[in-house]
Amino acid sequence: MNQRTTRTELTAEFLGSMSLVMAAVASMIFFVYVLDSHKSIALLANAIAVAFVLMALIEMFSAISGAHFNPVVTIIMTLDKRIGAKKAVFFILAQMAGGLAGTAVTHLMFWDEVGVVFAVSQNVRSHAYFGEVIGTFILILAILMLIKAKSTHIPMMVAFLVGGQLIATSSTMFANPQVTIARMLTATTSGIRPTDALVFIAMQVIGAVLAYAVYQFAFAKEKES
Q1: Alpha-carbon distance 56 to 38, whole Å?
Q2: What are phi and psi of 102, to 5 degrees?
Q3: Where is pLDDT greater, at 5 or 64?
Q4: Domains in the chain, start-ordered, CATH in brackets?
Q5: What is the dihedral angle through the alpha carbons of 204, 207, 211, 212, rounded to the nearest 10 degrees?
Q6: Which one of 84, 140, 166, 209 has the lowest number of neighbouring Cβ atoms within 10 Å?
Q7: Tens digits of per-residue pLDDT, 4-20?
């Protein structure tokens, strides 16, 4: 790997992952703890914030690193031979570090409301495991199909999908192991307790692999338009 190129790509993955987690965590803190909004309003605001931020992040960084910001996306891109295994490991490490930085920066930004850099969440989400399979399946299949179609609207399409699924799945669409780990360490409304987080990550991997299997079975060999 070219050292300078890899450094640029890893920086893009770190910053994108950090900013994505900030959008997910900060919007809930702002609406629930600062504005004292009902959770339903906060969730809608969260979906809008994540969609808008994600669209900008993909547009910013897609030409540099592919704008994965998500270990399961990186894993699927590796299986599809779009990225090498060694680079994928570094991508995932950068994403994880970026997500943790996102939680820390958000807590510092809302210090008066939170008062800690990290805090282990106790939010129970055991009812939502299957939602993570569905949400991740749809996300990965959409990304693969958009790439195959050579879409010029990938940032907008993926962002709309994530924002929509955030308020249309039982799990509120984490669909991302680094985001799940980062949200383990916030005791705010957006958090998830570690035991549920581990199951969420397993469900995300299952959803991603199922999506790739369906793509390979039904769509990969079809003639590209």
Answers
A1: 27
A2: -60, -45
A3: 64
A4: 3-219 (1.20.1080.10)
A5: 60
A6: 84
A7: 679 999 999 999 999 99
For the residues of the chain, what is the DSSP string, one character each? --HHHHHHHHHHHHHHHHHHHHHHHHHHHIIIIIS---HHHHHHHHHHHHHHHHHHHHHHHHHHH----SHHHHHHHHHTTSS-HHHHHHHHHHHHHHHHHHHHHHHHHTHHHH-SS--------GGGHHHHHHHHHHHHHHHHHHHHTT-S-HHHHHHHHHHHHHTTSTT-----HHHHHHHHT--STT---HHHHHHHHHHHHHHHHHHHHHIIIIITTSPP-
Tell me the C-alpha distance between 122 and 145, whole Å. Answer: 37
